């Protein structure tokens, strides 16, 4: 705690690089912007500026909030990251880049504790700050975290492409022109996301999770997931983000239907998924007959810090020391576990071995995290509640390449 106080005082009293960057305004952080400079993305002024702003955001919180052990832990990680990447020198060789990639991997592993610790800190700090301000602060940090993680994983994936046995100048030319039908990935972006494949895989995983929760009882009734619409829609996207969103929505629907009907029916009402493809977007509608959402929960549906299940979420988060916010980290038995398409370039982006957790451990932040993921790529996630009958979730995502990442404007981010 003393170190947090000391660094806060240093920030206010010394015009060092951190305080200078934290008081400047800059362009949004994105893959295109970060890769447009010769310096590595984490070393560029844009990234250092981003880290500095997030540190300043935490330093301007009420002292009792930043002194919370979980918020203080996150602050220390951000400060260490700033100091680490501030000292990275310009990459001039493949060996330099390999060392730099190792720094990125170590930093990503260290930051696996950010989401659960941040969520616990937000839940514990109910009195000192307005809940709406706490949610705004959480959303800002999560959006910024997604930006940095996407760029870091993108750099690692591009490095893996460069070092792959089949990589040549001709291969690079095909990648840039996107004319080779055999090319599946450009960095972290999967060029051939297929709506039907993603839905089927996420659906099988959601059903298997419920079987595990019931002790693998083969007699337990599991609702069918019916797919319709433009199932052949194929579009570029970051697959782990889409799997997380779809997986969370289907898990919620399957669980709601099973809880509502219990053992009353051998054949449960199905969950219906409609896919609609437009020139610019792909829209998913997931409809269930799980009875809808309770009026006591509905006002806090997208909140990280409020709601009647706050205490349960806090208790469950203490059992999750690390979290990458991917569906792959769930411990799913059998063949239902999510995987990315087979490619030698995948770099264990889910960090599954470090973040695995039981599938029935509900953290209370799945929907909120899903909306953050969707809105980061200029998409949207809305839920229409039919109390007593069911719920309809509408997910709209852009076909990547049509829109840049949409971080909140700097003015709004700085006002947290």
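-> sequence recovered:
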């Amino acid at each position: 705690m003393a170190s947090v106080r000391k660094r806060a005082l240093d920030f206010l009293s010394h015009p060092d690089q951190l305080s200078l960057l934290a008081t400047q305004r800059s362009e949004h952080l994105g893959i295109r912007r970060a890769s447009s400079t010769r310096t590595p993305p984490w070393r560029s002024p844009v990234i250092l500026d981003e880290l500095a702003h997030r540190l300043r955001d935490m330093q301007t919180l009420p002292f009792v909030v930043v002194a919370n052990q979980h918020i203080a832990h996150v602050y220390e990680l951000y400060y260490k990251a700033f100091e680490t990447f501030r000292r990275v020198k310009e990459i001039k060789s493949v060996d330099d880049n390999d060392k730099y990639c190792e720094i990125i991997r170590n930093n990503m592993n260290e930051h696996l504790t950010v989401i659960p610790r941040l969520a616990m800190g937000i839940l514990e700090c109910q009195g000192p700050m307005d809940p709406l301000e706490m949610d705004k602060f959480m959303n800002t940090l999560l959006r910024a975290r997604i930006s940095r993680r996407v760029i870091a994983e993108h750099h690692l994936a591009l490095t893996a492409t460069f070092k792959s046995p089949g990589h040549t100048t001709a291969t690079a030319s095909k990648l840039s022109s996107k004319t080779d039908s055999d090319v599946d990935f450009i960095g972290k972006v999967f060029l051939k996301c297929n709506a039907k494949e993603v839905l089927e895989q996420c659906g099988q995983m959601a059903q298997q999770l419920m079987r595990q929760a019931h002790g693998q009882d083969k007699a337990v009734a599991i609702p069918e997931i019916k797919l319709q619409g433009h199932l052949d829609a194929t579009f570029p996207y970051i697959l782990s983000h889409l799997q997380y969103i779809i997986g969370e929505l289907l898990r919620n629907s399957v669980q709601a239907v099973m809880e509502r009907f219990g053992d009353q029916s051998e054949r449960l009402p199905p969950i219906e998924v409609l896919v609609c493809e437009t020139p610019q977007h792909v829209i998913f509608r997931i409809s269930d007959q799980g009875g809808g959402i309770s009026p006591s929960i509905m006002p806090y549906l997208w909140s990280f810090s409020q709601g009647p299940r706050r205490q349960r979420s806090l208790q469950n988060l203490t059992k999750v020391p690390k979290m990458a916010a991917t569906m792959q980290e769930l411990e799913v038995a059998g063949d239902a576990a999510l995987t990315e398409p087979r490619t030698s370039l995948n770099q264990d982006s889910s960090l599954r071995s470090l973040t695995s957790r039981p599938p029935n451990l509900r953290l209370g932040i799945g929907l909120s995290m899903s909306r953050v993921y969707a809105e980061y790529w200029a998409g949207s996630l809305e839920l229409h509640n039919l109390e007593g009958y069911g719920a309809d979730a509408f997910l709209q995502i852009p076909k990547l390449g049509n829109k840049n990442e949409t971080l909140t404007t700097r003015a709004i981010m700085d006002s947290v």
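The beta strands are 185-186, 189-194, 225-229, 234-237, 271-277, 281-288, 380-386, 390-398.
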